[in-house]
């Protein structure tokens, strides 16, 4: 146990007038969105990209709130939560833990609560959800959205092709600068994921492809990239159902969709690199 009691650490942190949030999320776009949202709401945010990283940070820092992804690459969010609650038996502070999950079924939500989580949020995370969580689980939180200097909306291209639904992107991400930042990261991630997909396909490693498709689906959902989200979700589901013909069809369709989306973002100057 630390030489400085957990509750004393909290008092020291409170003098900084910034609440500390830990976001446990391995999907880069989802992590960036969550960090941006909570930072804009006045919080100091740390990111843990896997379970071991999260457990290390939790033992080093007095967090006011933890946002916990369920599907992590090493230890799932259920097990991490159990370990956090065991660790807290030796402390005087029980940090609220809120699940972030793409699964909306009742069984999954009940499992989250049974392992010690306080609430469940469905991805993608919206700013209004983040604000509500802060108000509910951090009693002295008083920071509100800064509406005194509204940013002019960019004239985004027509969404009729549905490469990106900008109505969804604005609802999730808000300002133009955040949308561009997230789309920039999406392009970088998709370029890297294509290389991994090709390597996995050459080995017919469908489990690896399923995991990559899951990540792509999650990143696409935060950007309003509806077509890419649909085909990547279809691919991972068909792999799970062991449907070879549908898997081959979806795999090649997803590859084309990635290329088309990257070209669409580049041609319409939608990333930070195209200013």
Oligomer type: single chain
Order of helical and strand elements: HEHEHEHEHEHHHHHH
Identify the overall geometry: globular
The name of the CATH architecture of the largest domain is 3-Layer(aba) Sandwich
In helices, the fraction of residues equals: 55-70%
Q: Give the end-to-end Cα distance, rounded to a whole number of Å.
A: 50 Å
State the fourth-level CATH superfamily of the largest domain: Response regulator
- Integer-rounded radius of gyration: 20 Å
Residue-averaged pLDDT: 83
Structural category = alpha/beta
What's the arrangement of strands in the largest beta sheet? 2-1-3-4-5
What's the CATH C level of the largest domain? Alpha Beta
Largest sheet: 5 strands, parallel
Query: Can you tell me the residue ranges where pLDDT is under 50 for at least 5 consecutive residues?
Result: 1-16, 144-160
CATH level-3 fold name of the largest domain: Rossmann fold
Count structural domains: 2
Count up the helices.
11
Q: What can be said about this structure in brief?
A:
This protein has 275 residues and is α/β, with parallel strands linked by helices. It is 57% helix and 9% strand.
Q: Your description of this structure?
A:
This protein is an alpha/beta fold. It is built from 11 helices and 5 strands. The chain has 2 domains: 6-137, Response regulator (Rossmann fold, 3-Layer(aba) Sandwich), CATH 3.40.50.2300; 166-274, Four Helix Bundle (Hemerythrin (Met), subunit A), CATH 1.20.120. The protein has helices spanning 6-14, 28-40, 51-60, 77-88, 106-114, 127-137, 166-173, 176-202, 206-223, 226-240, 244-267; strands at residues 20-24, 44-48, 65-69, 97-101, 119-122. A 5-stranded parallel β-sheet has the order 2-1-3-4-5, sandwiched between helices. Helix 5 links the parallel strand 4 and strand 5. Helix 3 runs parallel beside helix 4 and helix 9 (206-223) packs antiparallel against helix 10. The radius of gyration is 20 Å and the shape is globular. The relative contact order is 0.11.
